[in-house]
Amino acid sequence: MVQQPLLERYRALINLPDHTRIVSLLEGNTPLIPVPRLAEEFGGGFNLYIKFEGLNPSGSFKDRGMTAAVSEALGRGVTALICASTGNTAASAAAYAARAGLRAVVLMPEGKVASGKLAGALAYGAQVLQIDGSFDQALELVLEISQRHPIALVNSLNPYRLEGQKTAAFEIIEELGHAPDWLCLPVGNAGNITAYWMGFRQYHELHRNSLPRLLGVQAAGSAPLVLGHPVEQPETVATAIRIGKPARGEQALAAAQESGGRIIAATDEEILIMQRRLGAEGIWVEPASAAGLAGLAKEIQAKSIELSGRTVVVVCTGHGLKDPDIVARSLPLPTKIQADISTLEREITSY
Known about the structure:
The chain is of the alpha/beta class and 351 residues long. The protein is 42% helix and 15% strand. The protein has 15 helices and 10 strands. The chain has helices spanning 6-9, 36-41, 62-75, 88-100, 115-123, 135-148, 159-165, 167-176, 191-207, 224-227, 249-259, 268-279, 291-301, 324-330, 341-350, and strands spanning 32-34, 47-52, 80-84, 103-109, 127-131, 152-153, 182-186, 213-219, 262-266, 311-316. The chain has a 6-stranded mixed beta sheet with strand order 1-2-10-7-8-9, with helices on both faces. Strands 5-4-3-6 form a 4-stranded parallel beta sheet. The longest helix has 17 residues, at 191-207. The mean pLDDT is 95.
């Protein structure tokens, strides 16, 4: 069966203008992977799934929103796109611009972007500019330039980004047959948690299905929504969520509250532990993608969440190839051995 573009599959549920011209890389339709062994380690008695968004075309969930934003922009005759990015938005915007035959300009904070993400933006042919400043400053700049020139802003401030990203909620409901009891996910610029809530609420209004509680998780060194104020110099190994002033922060807080959930923070150590634990399940994610699981583990340990008989979905937003440097730095190098059978035998039997 030929896979449909995401915007065709959910056209009746997505609010896009008539002038939209679909630009697709066959995004979406990402797997919902059961991880029963991990659920048992957390105490058991509940169903646990990983929504692995790292299997989108450019390696992250951003493709869901980008297909919508770029399709709308192309339809109204735009010839160039711009975004500020810590990496994933850059790669996605560059990929969809290339697909549409449009120019892409990407503004990144210097030294704060994982090499895999920078490589992606360059490989897709974007003009990449780095500033001596933060993501938040980069976002202010691209917003201003998009107001001065006929260039489409494709950050999550673009409303069509959320229209595309909400489709992940539809997929989860369709595969499970219902909404999960809890949805756990990383929070950076806060567009994704906002989009998920939009999707779940829309499906609820149409079909009267249940609604999940949302557990949004920020990195402790970049947790403005937990602290209650912007973070001027956010720091975390989870580069995708290293954002001190989320563009959709108020909407994210409202979504968490309306759902009966919350937004919490996890330390870098807690995030990296869960990145390794996911790897042990055959699921390699970038550090930020492990934040949702780290937050869930923290809530379970603190006995702040009741999961008996429940269904939990953890969203992993980006593939591990997005940020391979973390693994290279934190894990031991391969052991060198002589090229003979006795040495090989000794190594594998003593491991």
